[in-house]
Amino acid sequence: MAGRAQRSAAGPAPGLPLLLPPPPLLLLLLAAAAALIRTGDGQNLVTEDVTVVEGDVATISCRVKNSDDSVIQLLNPNRQTIYFRDFRPLKDSRFQLVNFSNSELRVSLTNVSISDEGRYFCQLYTDPPQEIYTTITVLVPPRNLVIDIQKETAVEGEEIELNCTAMASRPATTIRWFKGNKELTGKSEVEQWSDMYTVTSQLLLKVGREDDGVPVICLVDHPAVKDLQTQRYLEVMYKPQVRVSQNYPVQGLTREGEPLELSCAAFGKPQPTDMRWLRVDDEMPQHVVVSGSNLLISNLNKTDNGTYRCEASNAVGKSHADYMLFVYDTTATTEPAVHGFTHLPNSAEELDYGDLSGTPVLLNASTEALPTVQLSNASLAFRPDSRAGEEGAIRSVDHAVVGGVVAVVVFAMLCLLIILGRYFARHKGTYFTHEAKGADDAADADTAIINAEGGQNNSEEKKEYFI
Fold first, then answer.
1. Which listed residue, of 65, 209, 253, 455, carries a Cα 20 to 30 Å from 77's Cα?
2. What stretches of 185-273 adopt beta strand conformation (E)?
3. Strand pairing category for 182-184 and 154-155
């Protein structure tokens, strides 16, 4: 007994099989093989996932490669048989057979809803059986797209808030903003309710007069819908833009005794209701006639010189435009190169405001301090001064004076050169002395020497005495 007990402890009895646990690697291989058989990967059964928009039709296809006439069936996510071959056990009329053969089972599902989303199984009765699944994903487009504006009517310079909401979508939508053709950046928030998402995007926009009547567009990016957008038109109030135009004379100088007619136009939102003419830093002359937006001076004179201003106002603010008048003498004939006005606009944005009347007029200028604005050549040609003729005449006189001075200087230099030439010509050649004076009539040389002033006869006058 003792010996038998020792032999049992040392090892199994002779003739019995050795039962050892399988190694870990073998377990992994067996699990992988079981999973391969269960899912059908690499087998003859194939299918594809389906993505469908809510309410549309989803088509499920179970196909067999190298078919051996095995039976195909389709099951829903609850493992209920939808179709067994060409027979439908499930009492749901939304499932309809599209195609059945030994190599394919194709079924359509109409009016798809969120509850239909999930895994659908294709099974092939082979030895061993094969199974593979397809996933139906349901997309839900936004049900409502609404833009809410904080203020229906804004004033230029204000910052307004706009909100665009896309409700009950799946997946969450992306909202984009546009003002006209320019894309803007908003801030989005996402809220989830069950399987649905609501997205709200906020846009802060500073408006100007150029934004009045411009559409703000809220555009949705979502796989279930294309080109879904909504828009609101901005309504912006702004102070008047005032323009002064010269009706007569159309071009040329404003001369004494001639008439001058100016007209004033103002555009704003709301339309300006109060317009008036005044003379800057002086009283309006008594003979000036103001009729509505027109100003008429029938007989110009020098006392009319000055700056005439047209002011307009509405509920937003007040603006003005100036005309600088300079009256010329009746004898002035120089025409100005360009004719118009001298006044800088209110701001840089007014430089872009087109001429509504088609005539050269002055851009708006408010009562506020004017900023420094660089004007282009076109803008400068757009607003000249009524004193342009005088400036042209002054420039012509300056050129004439300079030319005259240069001519005088050249003439004086020529005269000086002539005088110097004659002077040097007279003082060169033979020079005569008085030493031979009185010897002109002598008969011979000896007599001439004797008769000369420096001869022997005068030698006594040149005596030297030593004491």
1. 65
2. 187-193, 196-206, 215-222, 225-233, 236-248, 260-269
3. unpaired
Q: CA dist 459 to 407, 440, 462, Å?
A: 62, 19, 5
Q: Which residues pair with 176 in a beta bridge?
A: 219
pTM reported for the whole predicted model:
0.58
Tokens for 230, please give them.
Answer: 């909504």
Cα separation, 374 vs 115, in Å, equals 67
> Edge-to-edge strands of the sheet including 260-269?
154-155, 236-248, 260-269, 294-297, 288-291
d(CA 265, CA 240): 10
* Phi, psi (deg, nearest 5) at residue 119: -95, 135
Q: Which of 246, 240, 241, 242 is nearest to 360 (CA)?
A: 246
Q: In 3-state terms, what secondary structure has residue 423? A: helix
Cα–Cα distances (Å) from 14 to 7, 8, 10, 20, in that order, read 10, 10, 12, 16
Intra-chain end-to-end CA distance of the chain, in Å: 194
CA-CA distance, 50 to 300, in Å (whole number)?
Answer: 88
Rounded to 5°, the CA angle 183-187-190 comes to 125
Which residues are registered as beta bridge partners of 123?
Answer: 73, 131
Distance CA 78, CA 120 (A): 9
**Is 18 in a helix, a strand, or coil?**
coil
